[in-house]
Amino acid sequence: MHISLDAIRECLEGTIPAGIATCSLDGTPNISIVSHVHFVDSTHVALSFQFFNKTRENVLANPHAVVQVIHPVTGARYSMDLEYLHTETQGPLFERMKAKLAGIASHTGMTGVFRLQGSDIYRVRSIEKVPGRELPLPPARRNLLSALRVCAERLTQCNDLAKLLDDALTCLRDLFDVHHAMVLMLDGSGQRLYTVASRGYEQSGVGSEIAIGCGVIGVAAEQRTPIRIMHMTADYSYGRAIRESVEQEGLGGRLETAIPLPGLPDSRSQMAAPILAGGRLLGVLYVESPEDKRFWYDDEDALVAIAAQLGMAINTLQQFSDAPEEAAPAAGNDAPAAGAPMVVRHYAADDSVFIDDDYLIKGVAGAIFCKLLRDYTDGQRTEFTNRELRLDPSIGLPDLSDNLEARLILLERRLAERCTFLRIDKTGRGRFRFNVGRPFRLVEIG
Prior knowledge:
- By secondary structure, the chain is α+β, with helices and mostly antiparallel strands.
- It has helices spanning 54-61, 92-107, 144-155, 161-176, 215-223, 238-249, 297-322, 363-379, 386-391, 404-418; strands spanning 18-23, 29-34, 37-41, 44-49, 64-70, 77-88, 118-130, 181-186, 192-199, 209-211, 227-229, 269-277, 280-289, 342-347, 352-355, 358-361, 383-385, 422-428, 431-436, 440-445.
- The strands form four sheets. The protein has a seven-stranded antiparallel β-sheet with strand order 2-1-5-6-7-4-3.
- The longest helix is centred in the C-terminal third of the chain and has 26 residues, at 297-322.
- The protein is elongated.
- The model is unreliable at 251-256 (pLDDT under 50).
């Protein structure tokens, strides 16, 4: 019976080390252990190259090898006849294997010992099942394909970005039993990601940032590839990611404006998938769990599919938000807010904003917020449109790649969390109202 590589992907999770047999040109066999056999596609696998040993010496001279893998649940064994093709030392596949190997090393007490030097790509010539006893598979936790279908149907009904993001996180919770997740969007510089929605954390972390290339999330964005770790590893921890992010940008002296990234303190399994549209990176969909080995290949497939749908939907909604729309109402005639004025400080250097010494927001969202404050101060204006904000040079929106609606969601949610007298309410497609419940004094600095 023909056995496809797709059918035995669970054997390639690195849960049980694989055995590899090679042979030198003079016919001397060698048997060794390989820590990680990675599924590449339906006809190729990649083996981790960590040390220049006899196995590697043999493979470079004689490209044929036999690898035996074991199913982590049933104990079923499979023998794969492989042919070595080439080695990759960078790129998406290398980064996926590097992250996964870090998790395996941490789980087996080999941190600092395992170091990926390359991903050896092999063509799978044939697969045979090795006779022997095996255990039955337990019932599946859920039908992921069915869950994916329901999720897709729900997301196609969303007509604004906030609902789309919230519904995606709700689907992950209700349909996929994933209770800790977040969506991060790429900022206009293309160098950082900011959290715009999250689910399952004590603090939402909306507005928190992480640099491209840092941690599971940053690497997924940088390489445009899903990253999945089945065991906790300090190499990809939040703390390390944030520290590297701060160090990269020389922001050590400005931590007062750093919003903590939401995350589980005891995260054991992590998975991040890039959100793409037309080959352009829009953001990252990230999930995690306190359980070891919570996410497998099928879970990765599902997350990538949801991220792909998010990418298409976000791209479509962005085009709709740019379309001609009804004229916004004229300046509001609401009664002036009453009470003692609150001080709002705006630092022009980075558009960071503080309300009575409490940090609120910075960057493009900070610039938008200050425009709303100035317009209200000048003429009690409360009604605004996305289009006018996009065209306003004082905001400094980098280009169309920076999602204005995501910035407004970020500002709206930060205000809801941090301010009791200012609020943004959506009043229609591409329109919103700025509600002021108390006098304020805007102090411009720099």
